[in-house]
Design goal:
205 residues, alpha/beta, Rossmann fold, 7-stranded mixed beta sheet, 7 helices, 38% helix
């Protein structure tokens, strides 16, 4: 990776993902995680303050970006539970089958190159009775907004670290074999509509 990907892009992504509307969405899903937790795309550790320490055994933070892991290190060290980084992509989760109680997926599925493969891996490592907690932006339900998402997406992918703004998040999760327990959607306030249609909820296997 070049200078932009290692030094500039992580800070830009961190700034965008720490916007108040997005932090409010994180706070809706992250505290529900329990037991052995796998966070997909830990980024700079923005979710760590939202975990309930009384519910957490440990957190595996899957994050392939060295720049992001460096940003997350202080928050991981300060967490009142063990945080262990995994530096492989989401398509190659280095954990045993049926070994995770909760998976946390926040503003990451948009960026994973092979989203279906990554979701298959998440399903593999999740225990029976475990939960997938998610909050993601993606394809809007309004044709006029979706049209602009499709127009902007090729350019945005290049400058946004591979981020897709038009993925059908709910459909992707269900197509990977998850059962959708709860699914909520809205346009985030104070956010451009092409970037701001949000899906959040819980799925299981």
């Amino acid at each position: 990776m070049g200078f932009y990907e290692q030094r500039i892009l992580p800070k830009l992504i961190n700034s965008a993902c720490a916007a108040p509307p997005i932090l409010q969405q994180r706070q809706k899903v992250v505290p529900q995680a329990h037991g052995r937790i796998l966070e997909i795309g830990m980024g700079s550790g923005l979710n760590l303050p939202f975990y309930d320490p009384e519910k957490v055994e440990m957190v595996f933070g899957l994050e392939p970006s060295e720049g992001m892991r460096k940003l997350a290190a202080p928050a991981a060290e300060a967490a009142p539970f063990e945080v262990r980084f995994l530096d492989l992509p989401s398509e190659e989760i280095p954990l045993e089958d049926n070994s995770i109680d909760s998976i946390v997926l926040t503003y990451t599925l948009c960026t994973i190159p092979d989203g279906p493969r990554a979701l298959e891996q998440m399903r593999r490592v999740l225990k029976p009775g475990g939960i997938l907690l998610f909050s993601e932006h993606g394809k809007a339900p309004d044709a006029s907004v979706e049209k602009w998402q499709n127009r902007v997406n090729p350019i945005w992918k290049r400058i946004g670290g591979g981020c897709h703004i038009n993925r059908p998040i709910g459909t992707m999760i269900e197509s990977a074999g998850f059962k959708m327990d709860d699914l909520f959607t809205l346009y985030l306030p104070d956010t451009p509509r092409i970037f701001g249609f949000n899906y959040w909820g819980q799925a299981s296997i």
